[in-house]
Amino acid sequence: MGKKKHKVLVVDDEQDIVEILRYNLEKEGYEVKTANDGKKGLEIAKKFLPELVLMDIMMPVMDGVESCRQIRDIPEMKSAYIIFLTARAEEYSEVAAFDVGADDYIIKPIKPRALMSRINAHFRRELKNKENEEDIIKIGKFIIDRSSYTLHIEDLQVNLPKKEFELLYFLAESPNKVYGRDELLASIWGSDVYVLARTVDVHIRRVREKIGSQYIKTVKGVGYKFDMADQV
Amino acid sequence: MGKKKHKVLVVDDEQDIVEILRYNLEKEGYEVKTANDGKKGLEIAKKFLPELVLMDIMMPVMDGVESCRQIRDIPEMKSAYIIFLTARAEEYSEVAAFDVGADDYIIKPIKPRALMSRINAHFRRELKNKENEEDIIKIGKFIIDRSSYTLHIEDLQVNLPKKEFELLYFLAESPNKVYGRDELLASIWGSDVYVLARTVDVHIRRVREKIGSQYIKTVKGVGYKFDMADQV
DNA sequence: TAATAATGTAACAATTGGGTAACATTAAAA
DNA sequence: TTTTAATGTTACCCAATTGTTACATTATTA
Question: B47 near B24, Cβ under 8 Å?
Fold first, then answer.
């Protein structure tokens, strides 16, 4: 079973640099695509969806800053890592670079060995933080992340108190399944604590207040469920 | 705990210039040594191993070009930054200067303020492009450097005590992940030592005091996280 | 339809958890 | 050693979270 290669896009108008980077990246086992200007880079990024972009700032047709901005607008590229390659004289653009969503920049001349170790380190860290992804429920427009205790509704981060979060998380784990109040109490509050069943109602209400009332449905006489019926 | 000073060597046969530079550099917090000719400069460089050399081109005994060439032959000086100081009439030597490995040159008369900001900018760039990437976390406006136990917030260097640094580093390694007090104690203090969980709170407070309170978020009943939600 | 049961809602009370300061202890520097 | 900085502990206070109750609203059924 071959390991999945990380995808890297190199964008630079100097063909020498492109080739040096391609050579070194492929030697490290990355899957590389290249472009010679920002516009072409953007086009390739749309289809290739690289995890890392190495991009020159000064380029013909479309410069790196503008290209970067547009790459960031591609939904799948939101979490990609973008590194600018910059000549010494171009320092001015540092601020602009970070403004459009670059993650790092390196100053030419490029030292391939150092750059490779930097890139490897980046992916190593990425990997480490992927471990948390098991705790994430994506459902409809919601992302419910147990490792960070946050709820994302589209691009909005909502912070829920502990009980409310756990209630939502528990329900969302099994969409459409109806849970009685006792089950919820036992699972979320614990079977030893004694709180009134009506407490659940109040928490449901509080959750609804924050996520919108249509997602948690009441099944009269039975309990509650996280319902995805009328969601896309 | 004083910050580690960068080492700068000044070589010029005009004592006035040496003193002006020394005064300004020391005011900026650099550790300065000086010499009045290229030969002496070379000798000092061998022992002092400065990170930056400011060197006049026209000097008695050994001129700057030759001195620079030999400095570059010192293994530890390969990656030092060497700036030539040149009178306007000496422009011819520009080519020779870069040939022997100079990185930059400035034309006399020296404007101390401008030169200082140039030097400061150089060290900032150096910092951001450090070779030994493994121990460095760049996140938002923070650079957290484990190899020197320092924290940089934009251009400001902040020194954190050990525990505080490690707490910050640990949290920043996995941004947004919530860690309980026990996890933090186990990871940072070690699983064998016994300190109270509340100790974590106090250290969190001390870190917040230094980096600003908005970055480490409390998740009540759960723990703490380094939160990047409202940062660019 | 009225009567009844179930749930929604708001206001309030109780509790828990965390912030903070002050102090105590330990380690490091001078 | 003395002095200073770092770390750990404790106690008090405040505020968010949570739980409870009373009442309003809605659904269900006779």
Answer: no
